[in-house]
Amino acid sequence: MKHLSINVTGKVQGVYFRASTKQKADELGLKGTVTNLPNGSVQIEVVGETQPINQLIEWCHQGPERAKVKEVLCTASDGKS
Q1: Distance between CA 40 and CA 73 in Å, rounded?
Q2: Cβ atoms within 10 A of the Cβ of 36, count?
Q3: DSSP label at 78?
Q4: Is the Cβ–Cβ distance between 33 and 18 less than 8 Å?
Q5: Residue 81: is its pLDDT beyond 60?
Q6: Which domains does the chain have, with CATH numbers?
Q7: Is 67:23 a contact under the CB 8 Å cutoff?
Q8: Which terminus of the chain is more solvent-facing, meaning fewer CB atoms within 10 Å of its CB: N or C?
Q9: How many CB atoms lie within 10 A of CB 46?
């Protein structure tokens, strides 16, 4: 299992980015959370297998129809808290 933090910037709030991300993650069998941050970005914490996580990252570069993604930053974690 892999744990990744993904931060997405651009026009990603108010365009159903969180709900769409959850739907995509569910389709890919991933677990985690999606949060709107005060700075206007979206923070995704995801846990799962490498290939589905890579598919989610690829999807994040586009997001839902009304989103205008500027940047997708990924930070790996060892999953230990």
Answers
A1: 14
A2: 14
A3: -
A4: no
A5: no
A6: 2-77 (3.30.70.100)
A7: no
A8: C
A9: 23
β-pairing verdict for 42-48 and 31-36: antiparallel
**Distance (Å, rounded) from C-alpha 24 to C-alpha 28?**
6
Spatial contact of 32 and 47, defined as CB atoms under 8 Å apart: yes
Determine the pLDDT at residue 77.
75
**Residue 61 phi, psi dihedral angles, 5° rounding:** -65, -20
Active-site residue list: 18, 36
Q: Which of 25, 20, 6 is nearest to 66 (CA)?
A: 20
pLDDT confidence of residue 12: 97
52 C-beta neighbours (distance < 10 Å), count: 17
Which 3 state secondary structure label does DSSP give 33? strand
Tens digit of pLDDT for each residue in 51-73?
999 999 999 999 999 999 999 99
Residue 21 is inside which H or E element, if any? helix 17-27
